[in-house]
Design brief:
Layout lengths: L4 H4 L5 E8 L2 H12 L2 E4 L7 E6 L2 E8 L10 E6 L3 H10 L3 E9 L3 E7 L5 E7 L14 E8 L2 H12 L2 E5 L5 E7 L2 E8 L11 E7 L3 H10 L3 E9 L2 E7 L5 E6 L2
Parallel strand pairs: 1-4, 5-8, 9-12, 13-16
Antiparallel strand pairs: 1-5, 2-3, 3-4, 6-7, 7-8, 9-13, 10-11, 11-12, 14-15, 15-16
């Protein structure tokens, strides 16, 4: 359950993750202490925005919502595109919605924010000077992205048609999970939870970040003002836990074997 940085730049693959928070300074403090990130200013189209760096390489983005926008905070997964405008048209024609853009983010690239037919929000990124996450597989970097929805079969055709994914069922018959591949490389997953309750916002994309020790990282999350949503447990891909940051944005931490 890891995606190499080079693979992330294939059209359709998750290539970047970004968070819009209410307090940029508090969010930077949280993730800086948890993952060792350093921050530098990025494009300011929607207000204050910074890119997070690890070992001098870009790994994620963090922005600040306008004071009058009282929205729940969440990580957004961006999918790579060679032509953001054409991808936006394809999203609309396949039953999805484009809420923002496409628009330029300075010379870094062109982006849009959309949602699938079930309402899960994701981004589109056509990279120019900034192609996306430059480092993956190391502690503190995003290593996997997963759509959590009611049934995989309902949204699978949308992602296949828009982004060219090839899907492969995983697990036993009572576990509804698809791995999405591009040119034979696993790049993301779709987890169908059936009748289990979803978060208040409905279907969503979940970002997994690598950590050296899941249990220690989960404790650190709570020390920094976050909380544990699902305690650490072992999986075939490593020990993982679902957590939320100091403003409630959910993500998963995973210690790979």
């Amino acid at each position: 359950m890891t995606t190499e940085a080079a693979t992330r730049r294939m059209p359709g693959a998750p290539c970047w993750v970004s968070l819009l928070a209410h307090s940029l300074s508090a969010t930077q403090e949280f993730y800086g202490a948890l993952f060792g990130w350093e921050f530098r200013p990025g494009p300011q189209h929607f207000g204050p925005y910074a890119r997070a760096y690890l070992d001098g390489q870009e790994v994620a983005g963090v922005g600040e919502l306008a004071p009058d926008r009282h929205l729940p905070v969440a990580w957004t997964t961006y999918l790579a595109s060679e032509d953001a405008d054409a991808t936006a048209d394809q999203i609309r024609s396949c039953g999805g919605t484009v809420a923002v853009g496409p628009l330029d983010a300075d010379d870094a690239g062109r982006m849009a924010i959309g949602s699938d037919p079930q309402g899960a929000i994701f981004g589109i990124w056509q990279g120019r000077s900034m192609r996306g996450t430059a480092l993956s597989g190391e502690p503190g970097t995003p290593v996997w992205n997963e759509l959590v929805t009611q049934e995989t079969g309902v949204v699978e055709p949308f992602y296949e048609r828009v982004f060219g994914f090839e899907s492969e069922p995983v697990g036993a018959a009572d576990f509804d999970y698809l791995t999405l591949h591009i040119k034979g490389h696993p790049v993301a997953g779709i987890h169908g939870v059936g009748t289990a309750p979803l978060r208040d916002r409905g279907p969503y994309w979940m970002t997994y970040f690598a950590v050296p020790d899941t249990d220690a990282a989960a404790r650190r999350v709570t020390e920094l003002g976050g909380r544990v949503l699902r305690p650490a447990q072992d999986s075939p891909h490593g020990r993982l836990a679902a957590v939320a940051d100091c403003e409630g944005a959910a993500f998963t931490i995973i210690q790979t074997p």
